[in-house]
Amino acid sequence: MDSDLSRFYKRTIEKKTISSTFLNEERSLRIYLPPGYNELLTYPVIYCQDGEEFFNFGRIATFMTRGILDEGLEPAIIVGVDVNIVNRTAEYAPDGDRHQAYISFMAEELVPWVEQHYPVRTDRDERILAGDSLGATVSLHLALRYDDLFCKIISFSGAYLKSTQQALAEHKDLSWLQMFMIIGTDETSVATERGTFDFVLENRLTKEILDQKQTKLLYIEKPGQHLWGFWQKEMSDALHYFLGDGIS
Fold first, then answer.
1. What's the chain's average pLDDT?
2. InterPro entries, per this entry (predicted)?
């Protein structure tokens, strides 16, 4: 990588707000426009749960810019959807009392808004959902409900517990779904609001179901904890899996 890192920070990140009827509130967005952005062109789009964290801790904008400038990555627009931590579990967990409203907001309000304001491509295979932990969970459930809109998911240490496994098992065929799925082998005792879980075991069980349903799956286990310090190191590979020539 070029020793002059400053050029990787020369990018445009716009901050916007969108009013949601489903959530009955305004939601903050961070929108990354790639180097050479041209409104006459069209771009793939990545929708990130935990938008602030994906930008600040995952450094997705930096990895995207470096990939475009140096590694042949296809330019894409990134939409980071911020979340109020107080409501995160209620929105992201499948049994949360705001979950249905949140996924309806994503599919029926956010996607049309983005497509109205930015030159993103509108085929489902040009949209990527990205999430960590429960953010990966809600991304998967969003794709299952709106399979006409979404078919690609970046999953960092997904919180795929029994309700998610049951939802997957109800589908006869998931060959339309493509996932980059990584779990840290140190994530055997992850404390959450709802108890402590072995995320390695749950991800392995989820992988078995996805394999049975013919999902296009890149599944990776490697040493790592349930932290952004682990996920950030995998960001480049995740982007290359969907927007490059595979893992860099």
1. 94
2. AB_hydrolase_fold, Esterase-like, Mycobacterial_A85_antigen
Does 172 fall in a domain?
yes
Q: What distance in Å separates the CA atoms of residue 220 and residue 224, rounded to the nearest whole number?
A: 11
Domain-embedded: residue 248: no
Crossing angle of helices 162-169 and 134-145, rounded to 10°: 20
Tell me which residue of 247, 191, 244, 192 sits closest to 222, measured CA to CA: 247
Place 8 in a pLDDT band, splitting at 50, 70 and 90.
low
Q: Which amino acid is at 176?
A: W
CATH label of the domain that carries residue 137? 3.40.50.1820
Within 10 Å of residue 195's Cβ, how many Cβ atoms? 8
How far is the C-alpha of 138 from the C-alpha of 161, rounded, in Å? 12
49 within domain boundaries: yes
pLDDT of amino acid 1: 43
Helix (H) or strand (E) holding 169: helix 162-169
CA dihedral angle for residue 147, residue 120, residue 63, residue 136, rounded to 10 degrees: -20
Number of domain units in the chain: 1
Q: How far apart are CA 184 and CA 202, in angstroms?
A: 12
> Using one digit for the tens of pLDDT, what is the confidence trace for 27-45?
999 999 999 999 999 999 9
Phi, psi torsion values for 47, nearest 5 degrees? -105, 115
